[in-house]
Amino acid sequence: MLAIIGGSGLTQLANLNVIRREVVRTPYGEPSGALTFGQLCEHPVVFLARHGYGHTIPPHRVNYQANLWALKEAAVEIIISVASVGGIRADMCPGTLVVPDQIIDYTWGRKNTFHEGTDEPVVHIDFTEPYDAAVRRRILAAAAAAGEKVFDGAVYAATQGPRLETAAEINRLERDGADVVGMTGMPEAALARELGIPYAAINVVANYAAGRADSSQRICFDSIETALHEAMGRARKVLDHLCSV
Ligand code: HPA
């Protein structure tokens, strides 16, 4: 079974044929919402809205541990994260779809492991390649089949939020090698790896990162909404194709 974790702009999947919703409790607390089980193009899918179905949970308050644990309990075999990002690189303009291949983690204070290290041997997962290569390939093949242009590979910077970055912070992220910036990619990807669930992401560029649009422009929330809405439609199409093969 495939799990889709939907971020801002994707609190539900229009084409999901919903079969049941399940409220799950985990040793780590409650996930962001009920798991929605259904079929997408006849393929079994479980959907979870990362920020809650009413979009009320900010990135630093998402219970990533509970979300991942709940999906593991639901026996999902792969996870695709859909998350909105700001574009740092000039060609990552609003509306672009990106399948990142690397992460730099700038978040802090989040519960970022299932191995708290109290009564067990120390565990260091390998995270050289933070996204699963086979899942990435499936997304890229689905995008090609759907006729949707996606960027193959990008460095995702995970920031703490919930505020957007300063222009100087974006300059620093760029010097570090980041191409896009978002607030939810970590610890989600690392927790999936700890649980052994292959995980990859579709990033949807909602806006130019701070200071990257026309230099006199601040980030405009209305235009973020519009770009996100349109591009999420294309991300959904990619997911439909991924499920129909
Ligand atoms: N910064 C961080 N996270 C984001 C942004 C951004 O500009 N846009 C969407 N998610």
TrEMBL record:
Keyword Zinc: no
GO MF, one example: S-methyl-5-thioadenosine phosphorylase activity
Domain Nucleoside phosphorylase: 2-242
Gene Ontology CC: one annotated term: cytosol
Binding residues annotated for substrate, in chain numbering: M183, N207, Y208, A209
Record-annotated site: Important for substrate specificity: E165, F221
UniProt GO BP: L-methionine salvage from methylthioadenosine; purine ribonucleoside salvage
Presence of keyword Plastid: no
Reactions listed under catalytic activity: a purine D-ribonucleoside + phosphate = a purine nucleobase + alpha-D-ribose 1-phosphate
Pathway: Purine metabolism; purine nucleoside salvage
Family annotation (SUPFAM superfamilies): Purine and uridine phosphorylases
Domain of life: Bacteria
EC nos: 2.4.2.1
Pfam families from the UniProt entry: PNP_UDP_1 (PF01048)
Keywords: Glycosyltransferase, Purine salvage, Transferase
Annotated phosphate binding sites: S8, R50, H51, T184
InterPro entries referenced in this protein's UniProt entry, alphabetically: MTAP, Nucleoside_phosphorylase_d, Nucleoside_phosphorylase_sf
Sequence similarity: Belongs to the PNP/MTAP phosphorylase family. MTAP subfamily.
Other notes: Although this enzyme belongs to the family of MTA phosphorylases based on sequence homology, it has been shown that conserved amino acid substitutions in the substrate binding pocket convert the substrate specificity of this enzyme from 6-aminopurines to 6-oxopurines.
Protein function: Purine nucleoside phosphorylase which is highly specific for 6-oxopurine nucleosides. Cleaves guanosine or inosine to respective bases and sugar-1-phosphate molecules. Involved in purine salvage.
Protein name per Swiss-Prot or TrEMBL: Probable 6-oxopurine nucleoside phosphorylase
Species per Swiss-Prot/TrEMBL record: Zoogloea ramigera
